[in-house]
Amino acid sequence: MARAVNEKENAERRREILDAAQRMIYSKGYEAMSVQDLLDALKISKGAFYHYYGSKQALLEAFVERLTEEGVRQIAPHVDDPRLGALEKFQKVMSVGMEWKTGQRDMLLSLMRSWYGEENLRVRLRANEMGRRAVSPLIARIVRQGVAEGVFDTPDTERAADMFMVLGFALSEAIVTELLLTPVQGPGDGAARLERVLSAAAAYAGFYERILGAPAGSIRLIDPELMRKWTAD
Fold it and tell me: What is the mean pLDDT of residues 124-137?
């Protein structure tokens, strides 16, 4: 019984630290947040913090895991919606995911500035694998439905779903390169960056269609109006 109580208390304490970190990431950004900020806010010692999270990077990894779980909760109901065909589900997953991210635009932009630094490469790769394991089974269900409906034609639904995730990560990196890693050239540069992002998304949509055996032009990955909010000057 004591062990169960301790595990529950440890989980609760980890959640409290992560909750405080999330508030700070939203309010001031990950880079500006220090471990000392968390110690002051929670009235805990440095030793206590490092007992629950071995480093600030470990805290970042836990935060990204929380975001991944929230993202899955956003899209899962649409995967199970019996009223939707496979193509409709595929588009719904894309649009709901993008709307959710856009609603957290400022926080995500702040987070990505650190996320794509070399020091977080290991964490980023682990998070990608975490996302693949969580989302790929949902996509595989949509692909199987599409094959049964005759709108997809692929011999291996699980591998097709995994390729969906691999291409999704690659497209995300291409978008981040335009949003954060490419220097702004001056006023009006947002329109040019938006055009490059939409061009990349159209190319990746074509890749998806070929992998899934879907009709040409049937998949759209990005809503231009939502993406315009990300590239606004």
Answer: 88
